[in-house]
Amino acid sequence: METEAYLGPEDAASHAAFRPGSRDLFYGDGGRAYVYLNYGIHFCLNAITSRSGIPGCVLIRALEPVTGVETMARRRGVPATSARIASGPGNLTRALAITLRDNAADLTTGRLTIEPRAGARPRMTAGPRVGITRAVDRPLRFWITDSAAVSKR
């Protein structure tokens, strides 16, 4: 798993700061998906994280598939043995067939859910966000330390 946190309008890299159309979701109740088209090429999945009135989200950058691996690999056109089936925000949404129709979806029920990882908590590493040009110095990217699925080293 790899994520990046984005805060409210004080975070220059956050859509809450410069993309007015995202504000309804950013300021709404947590537990909803915020999906947008990045560079007109691929979709990105974010989870709205705060209670109503407090903006913030987490970009889901990568995950390690545990079920549906063959289906995800087929969607991506990569071998099912690849550690990078869902590595990178665009690859992740392709692997999971996430599109704009998933925008505002409830992430606690339905087709697209986020659930706690079973077992022991993995060792995590934090560092600066990647792929942005604003507020690049903030250490708001988090990943499982030894995961082969991490999108950027």
What does this entry look like structurally?
With 153 residues, the chain is an alpha+beta fold. The chain has one domain: 3-methyladenine DNA Glycosylase, Chain A. The protein has helices spanning 15-18, 23-26, 69-76, 89-96, and strands at 2-6, 33-38, 42-48, 57-62, 124-127, 141-144. The longest helix is centred in the middle third of the chain and has 8 residues, at 69-76.
Secondary structure: elements and pairs:
Layout: E1 2-6, H1 15-18, H2 23-26, E2 33-38, E3 42-48, E4 57-62, H3 69-76, H4 89-96, E5 124-127, E6 141-144
Antiparallel strand pairs: 1-4, 1-6, 2-3, 3-4, 5-6
Helix pairs in contact: 3-4
How would you concisely characterize the structure shown here?
This protein is an alpha+beta fold. The chain is built from four helices and six strands; from the N terminus they run E-H-H-E-E-E-H-H-E-E. 16% of the residues lie in helices and 21% in strands.
- What is the radius of gyration computed over CA atoms, rounded to a whole number of angstroms? 15 Å
Shape: globular
**Approximate helicity band:** 10-25%
Spell out the CATH superfamily: Methylpurine-DNA glycosylase (MPG)
Strand content: 15-25%
CATH class: Alpha Beta
CATH fold name: 3-methyladenine DNA Glycosylase, Chain A
Strand order in space, largest sheet: 2-3-4-1-6-5
The CATH architecture category equals Roll
Question: For the residues shown, what is the average pLDDT?
Answer: 92
Ends distance = 13 Å
- Secondary structure class reads alpha+beta
Largest sheet: 6 strands, antiparallel
